[in-house]
């Protein structure tokens, strides 16, 4: 993935992304990065997934 490679080149060592869709149509991805290895916990993943699913109501 070109985005992941660019983040890694810039020193980002932890990545998390969530797909964003509307009905059956893929709109894109919500990307997060951290310089700290292992930064993203299951809790962060859950929050990201909730946002990606419910972004239309924000």
What do these coordinates show?
36% of the residues lie in helices and 33% in strands. The chain is built from two helices and two strands; from the N terminus they run αββα. A two-stranded antiparallel ribbon has the order 1-2. Strand 1 and strand 2 (25-34) form a beta hairpin. It is flat, with a radius of gyration of 13 Å.
Task: Note the run of SSEs as H and E.
Answer: HEEH
Q: Kindly state the mean pLDDT as a whole number?
A: 86
How many beta-strand elements?
A: 2
Structural class: alpha+beta
> Which ranges are low-confidence, i.e. pLDDT below 50, for 5 or more consecutive residues?
none
Number of helices: 2
Q: Number of folding domains? A: 1
The biggest sheet, with number of strands, parallel, antiparallel or mixed sense and barrel status, is: 2 strands, antiparallel
**Tertiary shape:** flat
N-to-C CA distance: 28 Å
How are the strands of the biggest sheet laid out side by side? 1-2
The proportion of residues in beta strands is 25-35%
Rg is: 13 Å
Helix content: 25-40%
Quick summary of this structure?
36% of the residues lie in helices and 33% in strands. With 58 residues, it is α+β, with helices and mostly antiparallel strands.
Record keyword descriptors for this entry.
single chain; about 60 residues; alpha+beta; two-stranded antiparallel ribbon; 2 helices; about 35% helix; about 35% strand
């Amino acid at each position: 993935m070109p985005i992941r490679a660019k983040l890694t080149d810039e020193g980002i060592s932890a990545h998390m992304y969530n797909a964003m869709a509307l009905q059956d149509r893929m709109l894109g991805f919500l990307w997060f990065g951290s310089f700290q290895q292992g930064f993203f916990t299951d809790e962060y993943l859950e929050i990201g997934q909730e946002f990606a699913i419910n972004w239309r109501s924000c």
